[in-house]
Design goal:
Blueprint lengths: L4 E4 L3 H12 L4 E4 L3 H8 L10 H11 L2 E4 L2 H7 L2 E4 L15 H10 L7 E5 L7 H12 L6 E5 L9 H6 L4 E4 L3 H10 L1 H5 L4 E4 L1 H32 L3 H9 L20 H14 L8 H23 L8 E5 L14 H11 L3 E5 L4 H7 L4 E2 L3 H5 L4 E4 L4 H4 L3 H5 L6 E4 L6 H6 L3 E3 L11 H4 L2
Parallel strand pairs: 1-2, 1-4, 2-3, 4-5, 5-6, 7-8, 9-10, 9-12, 10-11, 12-13, 13-14
The protein binds uridine-5'-diphosphate-xylopyranose (UDX).
The site of uridine-5'-diphosphate-xylopyranose has 20 residues, from α10.
């Protein structure tokens, strides 16, 4: 008989995993402590924006395959495989990961376990967490319950969560016994049959695979942003440079877009947590470059603030700045550690009035940044602005008509913090165009360079 699956934690990761497991044909129980979130999900609605996911949740709630509860006892009673999908945010005062949600979930689940089952961690955690969790769960579970812990990290990207879960690049099974591997192979049988590569290993390696993947991606972005600084100093163009690098398959064509840098609930905290753990294990010096990647990333935000200040004539006092984008990336309403809002907040603190517009994240921005004007359209954000900043690369912004913005802005000055707008279109509508890592683009005009 196919296993009954529980998914503990129903945020971006858990809600996606639960709905996708139902899509694969399993009975799934989503577990959370947040009543409001549960009520929405049980009604087939999403408490956040994620393309394709709302339809999937609604479909499987209706089919009866997917249900939700706040009862850990019930989950422990019915589940054969329990996926732990709770958050592991950065601790408030250190760089390490906060494992309190994970430990709390294990503590509530373990005493009710009544039969052999597999507890599978999916969250990004410091290496060694699965070992500690195994001891914790086995100590709290009733004597004789055959419970095993495995680690099966998740690589989904927000904005593409459903596609990434149903058609992953690879699966990683960190297991402690052949039985653990068999149980994971059962769960993912249909994806394995489609040829999804799988790496089976021990739990520690599985934990480190996830932390390394995110740290590599973060380092790649910071690499191109460091080169962007060099380009700016040398009068070179990082966009052309990155275009040429991408043709080399050894470098790869993704995660090489220069701009305001990375944010979100994963990459920034994951590089810090990996370095913190490496320090604990006495090998921090080998990973010191992660500290540089982090600093370069934060500097990328400051450099966009500096460009905006220059465009405001050296001071933000009494200036109005329009900000296109609030989410940490397009196709998401997530504003956790969003570079767009970090830049907007820094400019506001320096004396400017801010108007922000995002196609999906306006509500979240309003909740967390109540002193900023939240505009109802992109053009509204530009109204009366002395400078316009493009900080989240929604397709709607690349497709917008610069003339419409010119008609309402106080001055035609734009900083493209994502390097995805077409300078020629904006310049043709009379805009002065600046972007990190590129020469001042007015100077690219051959008539100005060689009059
Ligand atoms: C990341 C990992 O990609 C994913 O595998 C993991 O499971 C969770 O963490 P996510 O946080 O959803 O996913 O976003 P991602 O698409 O990785 O983007 C992260 C940040 O990097 C965004 O702020 C994005 O704008 C920025 N970025 C990305 C760049 O600045 N330049 C790039 O070239 C690519």
């Amino acid at each position: 008989m196919s296993p009954y699956i529980t998914v503990i934690g129903t945020g971006y990761l858990g809600a996606t995993h639960a709905a996708c497991m139902a899509e694969l044909g399993f009975r799934v129980l989503g577990v959370d402590v947040d009543q409001q979130k549960l009520a929405k999900l049980a009604a087939g609605e999403l408490p956040f924006y994620e393309p394709e996911l709302a339809e999937l949740v609604a479909r499987h709630v209706a089919s009866g395959r997917l249900s939700f509860t706040d009862s850990y006892e019930h989950a422990a009673e019915v589940g054969d495989v329990h996926f732990l999908c709770v958050g592991t945010p950065q601790q408030p005062n250190t760089d390490g990961a906060d494992l309190s949600y994970l430990n709390a979930a294990a503590d509530r689940l373990a005493p009710g376990l009544q039969r052999p089952c597999l507890v599978v961690g999916k969250s990004t955690v410091p290496v060694g967490t699965a070992d500690a969790l195994t001891r914790r769960i086995q100590a709290a579970a009733p004597a004789g319950t055959g419970v095993e812990v495995a680690w099966n990290p998740e690589f989904l990207r927000e904005g593409y969560a459903v596609a990434d879960t149903l058609a992953p690049d690879r699966l990683v099974f960190g297991v402690q016994s052949p039985g653990g591997e068999r149980a994971l192979r059962d769960v993912y049988a249909s994806l394995l049959a489609e040829g999804t590569p799988v790496v089976t290993t021990d739990v520690r390696t599985a934990e480190l695979i996830k932390a390394s993947a995110n740290s590599f991606l973060a380092t790649k972005i910071s690499f191109i942003n460091a080169i962007a600084e060099l380009c700016e100093a040398a009068g070179a163009d990082v966009v052309k440079l990155a275009e040429a690098l991408r043709y080399d398959p050894r470098i790869g064509d993704r995660f090489l877009s220069p701009g305001v840098g990375f944010g979100g609930g994963c990459l920034p905290k994951d590089i810090r947590a990996l370095l913190a753990r490496a320090n604990e294990l006495g090998v921090g010096s080998a990973l010191r470059f992660l500290d540089d990647a982090d600093r370069t990333n934060l500097r990328a935000r400051r450099r966009v603030v500096d460009l905006a200040r220059q465009e405001c004539g050296g001071s933000f006092a009494g200036r109005r700045v329009g900000v296109l984008g609030a989410a940490f990336k397009p196709n998401s309403d997530d504003i956790r550690d969003s570079p767009a809002l970090a830049v907007a907040a820094a400019i506001q603190a320096a004396g400017a009035e801010i108007a922000v517009y995002d196609p999906q994240a306006n509500d979240n921005a309003r909740k967390h940044f109540p002193t900023m004007d939240i505009a109802l359209s992109a053009v509204d954000a530009a109204r009366g602005a002395h400078v316009l900043l493009h900080l989240t690369e929604w397709p709607e912004f690349a497709g917008a008509d610069p003339a419409e913005f010119a008609a309402v802005a106080a001055e035609r000055r734009i900083v493209d913090g994502r390097n995805t707008l077409d300078p020629a279109r904006w310049q043709a509508a009379g805009w002065r165009f600046r972007a990190p890592g590129r020469p001042q683009l007015d100077a690219l005009n051959p008539e100005e360079v060689n009059p």
